[in-house]
Write a structure and sequence with these properties.
Number of helices: 8
Structural class: mainly alpha
Largest sheet: 2 strands, antiparallel
Strand order of the largest sheet: 1-2
Number of strands: 2
Shape: globular
Strand content: under 5%
Length: about 130
């Protein structure tokens, strides 16, 4: 599956869900904002598409992700763990949601409401490679 397989609304909802994860304790840091901009470029989003995350409600975000196919949802737990790590100033390494107290709480709520399976990411570590440069 490639980013081209996702609709514009799905991409906006995914980006918005990543913002939810990163904004759980102290809002978005400059590092988190830079990460989101780089991630948006890598998935062929334009800046206006990233700005559309402000136009979509939390309820719409959940609804869009919940209605996505399981194949499309497969990448979301990885993006959430990557977002949590970036929010803590971490870059490359192996992480699980148990490593991040506040983000884990947000992800548990999101995963339940969006019907996203995070079971493999709770205590099993996954290597992340966030886009820190273009």
């Amino acid at each position: 599956m490639t980013w081209d397989d996702y609709s514009e609304k799905e991409l906006v909802a995914i980006l918005k869900s990543m913002i939810f994860v990163m904004a759980t304790d102290n809002g978005l840091s400059d590092r988190a904002k830079n990460y989101l901009n780089r991630k948006a470029v890598l998935i062929d989003c334009t800046v206006p598409l990233l700005k559309k995350t402000t136009e979509i409600s939390p309820l719409e975000t959940v609804e869009i992700i919940r209605n996505m196919s399981f194949d499309k949802k497969d990448i979301i737990p990885y993006l959430w763990i990557e977002s949590a790590a970036i929010n803590h100033g971490r870059t490359y390494g192996e992480y699980c949601f148990d490593d991040f107290e506040y983000e884990k709480e947000a992800v548990l709520v999101l995963s339940e409401r969006c019907n996203v399976d995070i079971s493999n990411y709770l205590s099993n570590r996954h290597e992340i490679h966030p886009p820190l440069t273009l």
